[in-house]
Amino acid sequence: MAEVERNYRRSAIVILGVMALIWIVLGGASFVSERGRPDPDAITFEGQNAVQGKRTFQAFNCMDCHTLVGNGAYFAPDLTFIYKKAGPAWLSAYLSSPGTWPTKPVVDLWIDRLHQAGAPHEADEAAYYRAYPGALKRVRERGGRRTLMPNLPFTEPQIRSLVAFLDYTSRLDTEGWPPIPQPTHAALLRETSTLEGIPGAGPAPQGSPAAGPAAAQDPVAAGRATAVQMGCLACHSINGTRLVGPTWKGLYGSAVPLADGTTVKADESYLSTSILDPNAQVVKSFPPSVMPPFKGRLSDQQVQDLVAYIQSLQ
Amino acid sequence: MEIRYPTQRLAYGYFLTMLVLLAVQVAFGLLLALQQIDPYLLQGILNFNVARAFHLNLGIVWIVTGFAGTLFFVGPLLGGRDIRHPWLAKALLAAIWVIVLWTACTLPLAEKGIAGWKFGQPWLQQGLEYLEAGRVTDVLLFIGFITLAFLVIGMFPRRRDWNELHWGLAIGLVGLASMWIAALFFEKTVDLQEYFRWYVVHYWVEGVWEIIHISLVGFLLAKFFDVDEREVGFAVFWGVGMVALTGLLGNAHHYFWIGTPAFWQFWGSLFSALEPVPLLFCMIHVFLDAKHGDRPLHNRVGFYFLFGSALFEQVGAGILGFTQTFALTNLWEHGTWVTPAHGHMALFGTFGFLVIGAAYVAIPAIQGIRRFDQRLSKFAFWTLFSGMLGMVLSFGLGGTVEIFVYRVMGLDWWGGQVRPAMAFWRGTLALFGLLFAVGIVALLYDLFTLRSRALAEEEPPAGLQPPVLTAWRRPLSAFELGTWLAGLWFPGLLITAGLFSLNLETVRMGDATVPYTLAGIGYPALLLVTVAFAVRFLRAFEARQAALEVLQAGAGEEVTLDVRDRPMPQRREVILGTYTRLAAGRAMVLVNDHDPRHLYGHLKHLRADFTWRYLDQGPEVWRVRIGRLG
Description:
Chain A is mainly α. Helix content of chain A is 47%, strand content 4%.
């Protein structure tokens, strides 16, 4: 080998060494504690922290449909900042039954529930929707409709951990990615000021305004309307398919095996109790605490209508 | 290429395994394309994320299996000895199957959210893109990489006798195992997880795989065209050197938006933009080496795939990578379909084509087939080639629409606004995916039934005709090569400009004319020039090989030119006049009274493509057979 060539090669290797040094310095500077990176151990939601959430996120391989900080499969939306847009109540409602977009009453229920649990979240529904305009946009445009996502069987602690994890990711400083869209940004701000005109908006309905006068005469039709409005069918199928919760088809009058090993007959009293306080009697092989309690959210009439509707599904 | 050591035959099982895994990977790819069209397809049975995990992991496994097969095939030739522990090479192949089947059982657990957490590590599957498999698989793979390095380096001669090829492969194999260590830990934070994930993903494909790729390309070219080993050594050293010099800091392009500081944008934009330099260097060497050699290459399809590898590397990794490497273009395209346009072409093109090419060299050699009918092989090549280009077009233009609708206008994915906008390109993606799958079927059928297409060894083969040098078949000059490369880069720059234009105020306020026009011209033009260049290059290659074949067979009449009784000053003119009148594939016999070696230098200086063989070397009469190639 010529002397010149040998010298060239030697300098190439020296330059490479310098680059490796630069690399190590840059890498070190990226993770020093002074940068104030968000700490996933410290970010919690209802007793679950973001590290547990990261484990859940990985266990379900979310990254091979969604993207996170832009890395992933481009098949479903990026999740990095979804917490900032939709907030914990909407996420909890969504993750409980990811096959269907949550309706407003369900999100409202979660807002109340989080508020009662002492979470430092928004004091009331209006404040929540102001803080998380994306939640309002979602319930208004998609509420009750089928999503493209499979109905993954998240348990209740997993849901809480995922919310904590998405809270954590929304605090990452991604240096301006993704770029903020200009026109829609303005539109979003406009939308937050109005709460009218949303199906199922407002506090717990007493007279079931969505059902209408005709439905009031027919308890089955009224029950179906309530089921749609409250998003029940996201988790309970009416054709025998197993979704997140037990199917309603053939449920009425059947013998239901419970998690504690006993069996109970699915009569009117069992069904009403299960709607108002789902954790009282959990069905065997279904996750506890995923369904929110509807006590105080449904009138007695609505519960009776729902039971009548379930009874009609034989 | 020949079998000189019995253990070279161990490569056979690796190549068959590689082909089977490749076919399964493509089947999953087709399923993904259909799920893109109908997201409910097989939902709850085989969810998109699980199918994609299969698609990605199989893609890595079959390429690494192909690498292993190629290394076991060429390793004995490089080392001048048999594989030391043949049983270990067999065990490694069995281990690949065990790992693949085990991982195939664990990946679907993602649908139930079972990762197998124990000691803080996910042992069954871990849901990280490209690294979806669990810790059990990771550890087994780590042992496998060490075994592979041990087996291959164990064949090499003593250290001081190593040339650049030995060093390249050794660095590549040690790097393969050592970079994998970054895949063995669970990170609590997203930024650190992504930081180390790219150690594996980037430093593999843009680092050690690339180094192995350059070394293997160098070796294969040397074998195909009898290139001097020192010349190849020079190319391998600087190829590897430039990959390291640009790729080491080039990895910074993965750290723009993952929660790491903004200074990465400077380093990533700068060095990553230089990453195409070694790829240009590689393309130029393929061009130079293909002009070497005066024996015809029978196994032309092996070179087709090797050339395809260099070209797709140039276009997919070099040009499409360049378009998205700047912080201000990456800001827009990151996390959209524009990324897989680059990823598919770069990964399959560069590494896939190389190992398929190696299979086309090794399988006939192992089966003892010296000549075979290559029409089906070439059909497979062109189908895979155009299928991939069509998929890239779909991803590129679909991604451009996606960027505008999703990022610029801020319409919502969940609101059902982004998907319909991309619908057309989802359709073309599936169609071109189908075309690609046809190529895979042809490839597998061809390689599995190669024996039935073996040709008898006729010398000379019947019906040999010198090539007709049409405009597309005449030799490719260096200037023309430069023009083609410029023709590839110009549309690449249009695409880059299109991505830059998204930063303009008018575009951000909702006017898509500039980015749509630039991408709408850029992508189709880039891919059409790619096809045209491939056709041009390979036709010239075929014409040269056909001329060599005719010359070797000695078919057709020869001109004899005796210049001994001519006056010295006229001789060169007469000789060149006769040479110029020769058709490609024809030869003249020059009779002279001294060694015409100055004429040889003169012809080289004129960049003539010719063969030169002494029939008599003095002391009174020198007779040289000069064959014209183009």
